[in-house]
Amino acid sequence: MKSISQYLVILFLIFTACTNQKKKDNEPKKPNILFLLADDLGFGELGCYGQEVIQTPELDKLAKNGLRFTDFYAGNAVCSPSRAVLMTGKSSSYNTVRGNSGSFSDDRWMRVALKKDELTLGEMLKSAGYQTAFIGKWHLDDPTDISTWASNRGFDYAVQEQWGSRFGGKQYDEQMHWINGKQDSVYYHINEWECKDDFRTNLAFGYLDKIQKDKPFFLFMSFRAPHGHEYEIGNKEIYSEKGWPAAERLHAAKITLLDKQVGRLLNKLEEMGKLDNTLVVFTSDNGPHREGRGHDPEFFNSNGELKGIKRDLYEGGIRVPMIAFWKGKILPETTTNYISGFQDLMPTFAEIAGINVPAQSNGTSILPLLTGENQKEQDFLNWEFQLDGWSRKMPDGGFRQAARIGKWKGVRYGLSNEIELYNLDTDISETNNVADEHPEMIQKMRNIFETQRADTDGFPYGGVIQNYKAKDKLQ
């Protein structure tokens, strides 16, 4: 027969276990993260950012239910270096990748992959207990080295297309998508889908149907639209009645169909019971393009009042839409003019996941801003960009720098040119260069350009002077 003291011990253990279980059940679960990245979407191409012609009802609704940024910046002015900033949390002047391709000996321009010792968002969140998936355009690899692909950089499930013989690999069919690095995994048949993003969203559904229910997930949707190299889509009817030039109808259709995929994903998460505990972030990798066999960014006023487009470090090339939604955390119908950019997302996601910010990142967590708390102001943001030499002359080296300090924006194209200065509070279109009136601010910009950076292979400081068309010696 047990003594009274033994019964008391048993009751205490039962009480403690029940209390601990109750605490465990009441502990907030780590939120899921759904990151949505458009490809070459301009600042003015969504209804919630002033677009009056192209229809984007799902993203407009997302902005209404969440937080809309007016002064958010891409990592750089083209795909690869911008995504490198996003993936590593390192601003462009410290990043390994500063252009779509780097300059090497014998007039060769080649893709530059992230270094193996550079932590990616996938690797960081996987270490924090997240299920990780990447679907779409990676653009941060060496095509000949599968260890640099998304499937080997922290993503449990990775779907990406591959391309580019001139960058060191054989020419792949862009309709073929590799799953976890395996060739011929799945093929995009254009007439079976409205567009490539429609196809990829279905792949995301397949992934979500198989996730572990008790673990958070990080899903990175790297959409195709409205990049100019998707020259044809399956939906031939949308906007067909408008009488627009074919390139413009295609451009508008891709944006509206992208918007539709965002709605499909959100509905899917709601049906799964996951949306209430999911941070949703939507943005673009750089400004609008002038590509796609005839598309003109002026046709739909793709940049609103901003100057410049893709490949420019004026506002039009790097200021992008940014929408954040998180039920119960982010107040609906809110707007912020807080100045931030891609390098800030890694520290933000780290804080959300409850882990230390990786030492490599020089970004600032904007979690306080998202949740309505006091947010630390940034001293400055800066960019360093190298045009590649394929099919273009570069007498100034194709080297571009920019920085933003509060209301001030400095821009320099080529080391031999003067720094331009603009007051964005009064001149958002960067039409009135006031450099002569503010020598002290010019000196601050110069100091940032010269000291807030590091050298990296393939992207020499000052660029690559080139007065002839580069020859592709890899063909």
Automatic annotation (TrEMBL):
Key word Calcium present: yes
Keywords (alphabetical) are: Calcium, Hydrolase, Metal-binding
Name the source's superkingdom: Bacteria
Q: Which PROSITE patterns match?
A: PROKAR_LIPOPROTEIN, SULFATASE_1, SULFATASE_2
- Gene3D superfamilies referenced in this protein's UniProt entry, alphabetically: 3.30.1120.10, Alkaline Phosphatase, subunit A
Annotated GO molecular function terms are: arylsulfatase activity; metal ion binding
- Give residue ranges for domain Sulfatase N-terminal: 31-355
The record's annotation in InterPro entries points to: Alkaline_phosphatase_core_sf (IPR017850), Sulfatase (IPR050738), Sulfatase_CS (IPR024607), Sulfatase_N (IPR000917)
Q: Which family does it belong to?
A: Belongs to the sulfatase family.
Q: Which PANTHER family match?
A: ARYLSULFATASE FAMILY MEMBER (PTHR42693), ENDO-4-O-SULFATASE (PTHR42693:SF53)
Its name, as the record gives it, is Arylsulfatase
> Which organism is this protein's natural source?
Draconibacterium aestuarii
- Organism classification: Bacteria, Pseudomonadati, Bacteroidota, Bacteroidia, Marinilabiliales
